[in-house]
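Design a sequence for this backbone.
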């Protein structure tokens, strides 16, 4: 995969299979970060479906006091001071898919499943 950008704003993207995408960047507010983001998005269009789905998982919600949250059920681990542990973690994808799992490991597993389904063409 390769990307080439000319000073006048022309951009050319090529995949290893020979597919090509060309365009013109308009306007004057382009910096190297914005150009790189456009090139990255274009290269994703030319690559394998699984590469179009970049997933990430966040951090567990962590310790909190039950009265700090209206949705608290009082379940989970407890430590001194009446704090409860909430392991729920969000997994998300560059395609817009998002889910909350009960644990960080659960979120990772669901994100992996999403990538597999995306690569096979199954609905997620």
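Sequence:
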């Amino acid at each position: 995969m390769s990307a080439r950008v000319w000073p006048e704003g022309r951009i050319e993207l090529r995949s290893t299979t020979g597919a090509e995408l060309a365009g013109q960047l308009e306007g004057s507010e382009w910096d190297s970060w914005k150009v790189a983001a456009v090139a990255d998005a274009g290269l994703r269009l030319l690559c394998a479906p699984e590469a179009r789905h970049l997933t990430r998982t966040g951090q567990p919600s962590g310790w909190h006091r039950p009265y700090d949250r209206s949705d608290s059920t009082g379940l989970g681990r407890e430590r001194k001071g009446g704090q409860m542990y909430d392991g729920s973690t969000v997994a998300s994808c560059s395609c817009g898919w998002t889910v909350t799992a009960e644990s960080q490991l659960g979120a990772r597993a669901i994100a992996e499943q999403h990538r597999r389904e995306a690569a096979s063409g199954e609905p997620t």
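The CA atoms of residues 34 and 40 lie 10 Å apart.
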